[in-house]
Amino acid sequence: MTAISPENPLSSEGAQALLAMLPARVEIKRGMSERELDHVEERWGFRFAPEHRTLLGAGLPTGSRSWPDWRDGDPEDLAERLSWPVDGVLFDVERNGFWHPDWAPRPTDTQNALEVARTHLAKVALMVPIYSHRCLLADPERTGTPVLSMYQTDIIYYGTDLVDYFHHEFGRPVATPDDHQYATIPFCSYFLD
């Protein structure tokens, strides 16, 4: 398995091979056109990572609540999915005392702490759901970033990149070498180091 990189981008054929790993209960609808993908990005204010865009262009997985339906999905559901990572951090700020060390002293009042956290989180790069709470960095300039499993501040690597993620979630996992260096993801890498 070769890692996705700017020198080795995910091809349409590679994306179709990933989609072929999915269980039979997952319906693969026609791939999204460039125009449809542009519309999603414009509507929701983010840009897909190149490999995520290629995957969705090859086919749109649907058939269960776990897959975001970027073409025909309920706007409220998509908004909730996109806000999931930030909402999870805010939950931990409010209920579990989480405070990022770069955010200066934590205000003693919980509501003030939430406002400060929201201000900082508004500057964090968006993580876009792929499947359930597995997310990929929304950055059209970066290829081969890790897929993260994000549940509040319980954030872990779920794949070194999109291909590795599909192998781990739906196929036959390939062991990640102990000395593998994951690409850095602003803010999220704090939880992973």
Write a short abstract of this structure:
With 193 residues, the protein is an alpha+beta fold. The chain has helices at residues 12-20, 34-44, 50-58, 75-95, 110-121, 162-170, 189-192; strands at 27-29, 60-62, 127-131, 134-137, 147-151, 154-159. Strand 3 and strand 4 form a beta hairpin.
Structural overview:
A four-stranded antiparallel β-sheet has the order 3-4-5-6. A two-stranded antiparallel ribbon has the order 1-2. The protein is globular. The protein is built from seven helices and six strands; from the N terminus they run αβααβααββββαα. The chain has helices at 12-20, 34-44, 50-58, 75-95, 110-121, 162-170, 189-192; strands at 27-29, 60-62, 127-131, 134-137, 147-151, 154-159. With 193 residues, it is an alpha+beta fold. The chain has one domain (12-192): 3-Layer(aba) Sandwich (SMI1/KNR4-like).
Specify the number of helices.
Answer: 7
Total DSSP E strands: 6
Roughly what is the average pLDDT, rounded to an integer? 93
Architecture in CATH? 3-Layer(aba) Sandwich
Structure class: alpha+beta
The order of strands across the largest sheet is 3-4-5-6
Low-confidence stretches: none
H and E order: HEHHEHHEEEEHH
Largest sheet: 4 strands, antiparallel
Separation, N- and C-terminal Cα atoms: 25 Å
Shape: globular
Helix amount, in percent? 25-40%
CATH domain class: Alpha Beta
Strand content: 5-15%
Please give the radius of gyration in angstroms.
Answer: 17 Å
| CATH topology annotation | SMI1/KNR4-like
As for the number of domains, it is 1
Secondary structure elements and pairings:
Elements lengths: L11 H9 L6 E3 L4 H11 L5 H9 L1 E3 L12 H21 L14 H12 L5 E5 L2 E4 L9 E5 L2 E6 L2 H9 L18 H4 L1
Antiparallel strand pairs: 1-2, 3-4, 4-5, 5-6
Helix pairs in contact: 1-3, 4-5
